[in-house]
Design a protein that fits this description.
Layout lengths: L9 E10 L7 H16 L2 H8 L3 E6 L2 E6 L4 H14 L7 E14 L5 E4 L1 H11 L6 E4 H7 L9 E8 L5 E7 L11 H8 L12 E4 L3 E2 L7 H16 L5 E2 L2 H4 L9 H8 L3 E10 L2 E10 L4 E11 L3 H15 L6 H7 L7 H14 L8 H13 L4 H16 L8 H14 L4 H14 L3 H14 L4 H13 L3 H14 L4 H13 L3 H14 L4 H13 L3 H14 L3 H14 L1 H21 L6 H11 L2 H13 L3 H5 L13 H6 L7
Parallel strand pairs: 4-6, 9-11, 9-12, 10-12
Antiparallel strand pairs: 1-3, 1-4, 2-3, 4-5, 6-8, 7-8, 12-13, 13-14
Helix pairs in contact: 7-10, 7-12, 12-13, 12-14, 13-14, 14-15, 14-16, 15-16, 16-17, 18-19, 18-20, 19-20, 20-21, 20-22, 21-22, 22-23, 23-24, 24-25, 25-26, 26-27
């Protein structure tokens, strides 16, 4: 199977379609409307011709889909025109469409399913998102192409610039006539015209984002190395208190992006951008970097390094130092030592470490066990490699804290942590790990808070430490402080799905369900396949009485989590018997599944039993499992104190008594 790097981008002409108000429809209505929309699209001349010639790609979405044509930008527009005319006969089927031409590629996702990705798809959806029901909107690029033809020119009506997701802007044109389309100005444009212009947030001059480095190696498997070098330089820069450095989890979305440097910098809130490329062949490495002033898109500094692999740490240190000098950042003696450190002299150990960090990004997806093996092998090759111990400890702690791995993994996490701090007590990630060990394993909140603060001191640009700290502050009743930490984290890591997920969960705990839903929506815009976000979204909808929406989100979570049969069962039970009966029926099935797993000797968190019995309405058994939940050293134990999910138990006098084992606020 070819890797993603082996697949070439092609220019695709994309028609993106969705049903307006889809989530508010009953499941039966959703199915009927989607089926009718498919029939209309498939009946168009453009669809049938492209399908027959094998020149059509299709990307289904929950409320519509995308059609990718390969011949001409006219084809998706003509298809949209034909669909719009047909929809006149179905006034209840409210559809909007967006067209853009841009790079697309066929890929294989984690489920080994064919999929389509690329900026062409993303931009077509953003164009569509600017419209309302009935609109056929075109990107300025497509409109410019069509304007050369007499048949299209009278139908094109320029709307101007629209602000889309994450502060980006794009030119949009409305396509309509008396027979098709919607001549009304989209609400989004009306709102922008009516709104008062707010002063822009000042961008700090000493701020930088490192875009993903391009892998120029002949061996495409070396992508891990290019990513690793970028991340290591970023880590060194993050140690400088006088710099604002954007986290890798936010810059990663701009990999292979066609957006301009000024636009990317504006979205990230930085004044400068570092671009780079890496070529690795055997023990030879070439690194080329250029620092760009985003305001005028000019080069501040550029350098090319041709070195032996053993010298890579000197390259990383030199790049960090020269960036600091170019931005006139003040460095303390400790910061200078930090950015010039060499954690290992063993190049094989270092490459294994980078492979582990690269694989870590998949979290606990299939193959994640390889992370532990890479870290362990790196430690075997160099027992003094402190960051590798932090990585190994984080593997065990992350799994145990989230009840993915059994509590028996905590001692291994603590052992690795102690060794890391013994070797180097200046690693911010080690203190983040220490905070987790102290809080979830040892239940020592004051010690955990000291570790959070020390980690943030050592790495002032770590959004991950701050958003985790903010979440924990809320658990201990310090909501305003927690929200302030989340706000700081968002400045450092604006596009990290996990941050928005945590922020939504915080507002869920605070019973601000509308705010929680807004964050979960953003999470899913950034990462549509996030099963946990769909689950939390459903939880918030349930609390608001949006029962249909709750079922929809839970079904998406079950499907993405590898349980499509459970999703189908829940949907059918809801249609047949209503919300309460459907939830109880699913809980009964899930309880049976939990018992089967336990019988096989698998670790099953007590929390899973607790929530199943709550759904069944069995409060006695729920209280039994609550007692077991709060004893387990994981996140769910601490969540028990604040989550609305347990509100049905709070009036029972035994509830507070059970929670006395939790650390004091």
């Amino acid at each position: 199977m070819p890797s993603e790097a082996d697949v070439k981008f092609e220019i695709g002409h994309v028609l993106f379609i969705d049903i307006v108000g889809y989530s508010k429809l009953l499941i039966r209505e959703q199915t009927e409307q989607l089926q009718k929309l498919r029939e209309i699209a498939r009946a168009t001349e453009q669809f049938r011709a492209a399908q027959a010639e094998g020149k059509l790609l299709r990307l289904p979405t929950g409320d519509g889909g995308a059609l990718v044509f390969s011949d001409s930008p006219e084809t998706p527009v003509a298809c949209a025109l034909e669909i719009s005319k047909a929809l006149k006969n179905y006034p209840d089927l409210r559809v909007r469409m967006g067209v853009h031409s841009g790079p697309v590629k066929e890929v294989t996702d984690l489920n080994e399913q064919a999929n389509i990705a690329g900026a062409g798809i993303n931009m077509a959806q953003r164009v569509m998102d600017c419209g309302d029901a009935g609109h056929i909107l075109l990107s300025k690029r497509v409109a410019d192409d069509l304007e050369q033809y007499g048949r299209w020119r009278p139908l094109l009506h320029d709307l101007g610039i629209c602000e889309v997701k994450h502060g980006a802007t794009l030119g949009v044109v409305n396509l309509y006539s008396d027979e098709f389309g919607n001549p009304e100005t989209p609400k989004k444009f009306k709102a922008e015209e009516a709104a008062e212009k707010k002063p822009s947030v000042p961008i700090l001059r000493k701020s930088i984002a490192l875009l993903p480095f391009e892998n120029l190696s002949e061996d495409k498997a070396n992508a891990y190395f290019a990513d690793g070098i970028q991340e290591e330089i970023l880590t060194r820069l993050s140690r400088i208190g006088d710099l604002k450095v954007i986290s890798r989890t936010s810059t990663q979305r701009f990999k292979n992006s066609l957006e301009s440097i000024p636009d990317i910098a504006k979205q990230l809130g930085v004044a400068t951008i570092l671009e780079g490329s890496v070529r690795k062949a055997a023990d030879q490495v070439r690194v080329h970097v250029q620092l760009i002033d985003a305001e005028n898109d000019s080069h501040l500094w550029a350098e090319r390094y041709d070195r032996k692999l053993i010298d890579i740490f000197a390259v990383e240190s030199d790049i960090a130092a020269k960036i600091a000098d170019a931005l006139h950042a003040k460095l303390t003696g400790a910061e200078r030592r930090a950015i010039s450190s060499q954690p290992t002299k063993n190049t094989e150990a270092y490459q294994l470490y980078l492979k582990a960090r690269h694989q870590w990004r998949n979290f606990f997806a299939p193959g994640y066990e390889q992370v532990r093996k890479y870290f362990q092998r790196a430690i075997e090759l160099d027992p003094s490699f402190a960051p590798a111990y932090v990585g190994l400890g984080s593997y065990h702690a992350f799994g145990a804290a989230n009840a993915i791995l059994p509590p028996a993994h905590w001692p291994a996490a603590e052992t690795a942590l102690q060794k890391a701090l013994e070797l180097d007590d200046t690693l911010a990630d080690a203190y983040h790990l220490l905070a987790g060990v102290e809080l979830y394993y040892k239940r020592n909140w004051p010690a955990a808070e000291r570790a959070f603060l020390r980690g943030a001191e050592l790495n002032p640009s770590s959004g991950e430490i701050r958003h985790h700290y903010g979440l924990c502050l809320v658990l201990f009743g310090r909501s305003e402080e927690g929200l302030a930490q989340i706000a700081l984290a968002k400045q450092l890591d604006p596009f990290f799905p996990g941050l928005h997920l945590f922020a939504g969960r915080i507002l869920f705990f605070l019973r601000d369900y509308d705010g929680a839903i807004a964050y979960f929506t953003t999470t899913l815009e950034l990462q549509p396949t996030n099963a946990v976000a769909h689950e939390h979204f459903g939880d918030a909808c349930e609390r608001k009485g949006m029962l249909h929406e709750a079922i929809t989100q839970w079904c998406a979570s079950l499907t993405l989590g590898g349980q499509p049969e459970q999703a189908q069962f829940l949907e059918q039970a809801f249609a047949a018997s209503g919300f309460d009966a459907a939830v109880r029926a699913l809980a009964q099935r899930q309880l049976q599944h939990l018992n089967e797993r336990s019988a096989r000797g698998e670790y099953v968190p007590a929390w899973n039993y607790l929530t199943a019995y709550l759904r069944l309405g069995d409060k006695e058994q729920a209280l039994v499992w609550l007692a077991k939940t709060v004893e387990e050293p994981n996140w769910f134990a601490l969540e028990s104190r604040v989550t609305p999910i347990l509100d049905p138990l709070r009036s029972d006098p035994r509830f507070d008594q059970i929670l006395t084992v939790l650390p004091a606020k």
